[in-house]
Design a protein that fits this description.
By secondary structure, this protein is α/β, with parallel strands linked by helices. 40% of the residues lie in helices and 13% in strands. The strands form five sheets. The chain has a five-stranded parallel β-sheet. The protein has a three-stranded antiparallel β-sheet with strand order 1-6-5. A two-stranded antiparallel sheet has the order 2-3. Strand 2 and strand 3 form a beta hairpin. The chain binds adenosine-5'-diphosphate and magnesium ion (MG).
């Protein structure tokens, strides 16, 4: 099939996935597949799980990351089983900011972008479908329309818990456009897309003095104040910050610790209470997974500052240390060359292996045990059988892993 045909087919497929209906009709969908109302955390976990999880020699292998991330199995298992999984089950860890911490070029950004691209694709599948109030700039969860005092009844009938309150803009729209008839509010299926700013956001720190909190939380559109008469009219507000746009999906917070503290407190209120403050409105509820990352040096400076204690206790740190397996390191190089424009250049046999050996040796600490040398240690780590040593020794050695920043 040539590319033009494929483009046409893609457009047709996309068209088929579209859905639009009233809130009453949406409830019919929920009766059949309550899963469409899952939280952002739960969606991320289910996406990883649906791709398949295998267990090889006691280590979990996640198909979602295979072929893309190498040598990070232990870190991934920890991240998924200690954060994504319990967070998906609404346990308390989801209330902490997830911070990936590790050396530069260790694969943190790659991991996060795999999650982002994954979510975009997952929202096209039946199992990852997401619905939102039509015309809402934050693609608000339609279930927020159900008033607080009916939520227990709703849970009884549908088995779905509702978190969060209707945003000020939709409170107003409900009244003015729908005459308070909740059942008539239009709902549509949405497809996550970073390019279209639907459910996927990225925040990167710039100059701390000039960066505006509006980048995160949106801002007043002064040109419309004359029309609406007041700064507290939600129609005069642009809900276009990264936190607004990432609602229902995930937001990547790059190099979090380079950022001014005031930004972090907004994040904290979002992860802890599920809402954040913007303009002169009541709190805005949002449901999104926030993944921040930082390198080790900055993290060390951050925790050594007493002033940061409160923040620190609300962050869950997931270490992403360097890969320490030669074979996996070789795969990283192969991948990087394959993806480059020099993929056709001849490379002498064993070149990448030697380069990988060199890298790994610089990452390993000198062994404490007298009878093992660095080369043996390296081979043990790579899963080779080394005379006189066994896997128990590896665990012993692993305690001495050195993380280089
Ligand atoms: N464990 C890994 N598996 C696969 N590729 C990796 C790994 N670590 C680093 N890379 C590659 O190295 C480059 C830099 O990684 P990146 O994700 O930007 O690191 P970080 O954000 O931690 O500084 C990327 O091209 C990435 O593909
Ligand atoms: Mg990075």
């Amino acid at each position: 099939m040539d590319i033009l045909k494929k483009i046409e087919k893609f457009r047709e497929d996309e068209q088929k996935l579209k859905w639009e209906g009233t809130f009453a009709e949406y409830l019919e969908i929920l009766k059949e597949t309550p899963l469409v109302a899952q939280s952002a955390h739960s969606r991320v976990y289910n996406m990883i799980r649906d791709a398949g999880i295998e267990e090889v020699n006691g280590t979990k292998k996640y198909n979602f990351f295979s072929g893309q991330l190498f040598g990070l199995e232990d870190s991934l298992e920890r991240l998924i089983e200690e954060y994504f999984h319990p967070a998906a089950k609404r346990l308390d860890v989801r209330k902490r900011i997830l911070l990936l911490m590790g050396p530069v070029s260790g694969g943190k950004s790659t991991l996060v972008s795999l999650l982002k691209r994954g979510l975009e694709n997952y929202s096209l599948k039946d199992s990852g479908a997401i619905y939102a109030i039509k015309g809402c700039p934050m693609h608000e969860d339609p279930l927020h329309l159900i008033p607080q005092y009916l939520r227990d009844d709703f849970f009884e009938e549908y088995g779905i818990r509702i978190e969060g309150n209707l945003s000020p803009l939709n409170v107003m729209r409900l009244e003015q456009e729908y005459g308070n008839r909740i059942e008539d509010v239009m709902v549509e299926r949405i497809f996550l897309s970073e390019d279209k700013r639907v459910g996927i956001g990225t925040f990167s720190p710039s100059d701390p003095k000039s960066q505006d909190i509006a980048d995160l939380t949106g801002s007043i559109d002064f040109s419309t104040i004359a029309e609406y008469g007041s700064e507290s009219d939600p129609r005069a507000y642009r809900f276009d910050g990264e936190l607004n746009k990432a609602n229902r999906g995930m937001m990547e917070f790059q190099e979090m610790l380079k950022c001014d503290e005031k930004f972090l407190w907004h994040l904290l209120s979002l992860t802890q209470e599920g809402n954040f403050k913007a303009g002169r409105f009541a709190l805005i509820s949002a449901d999104e997974l926030i993944v921040a990352h930082t390198n080790e040096t900055e993290y060390k400076a951050f925790i050594s500052n007493k002033k940061n204690e409160a923040l620190h206790s609300r962050i869950i740190v997931m270490p992403i240390p360097y890969n320490l397996k030669v074979t996996e390191e070789e795969k990283i190089y192969e991948k990087m060359i394959r993806e480059s424009d020099v993929s056709d250049v001849h490379i002498a046999p064993h070149t990448l292996r030697v380069a990988a050996i060199f890298s790994i040796m610089t990452r390993l600490k000198d062994p404490k045990k007298g009878d093992i040398d660095l080369v043996k240690k390296m081979r043990l780590y790579d899963g080779e059988n080394v005379e006189g040593f066994n896997s128990a020794d590896i665990n012993e050695l692993k305690k001495n892993i050195k993380m280089k920043a």
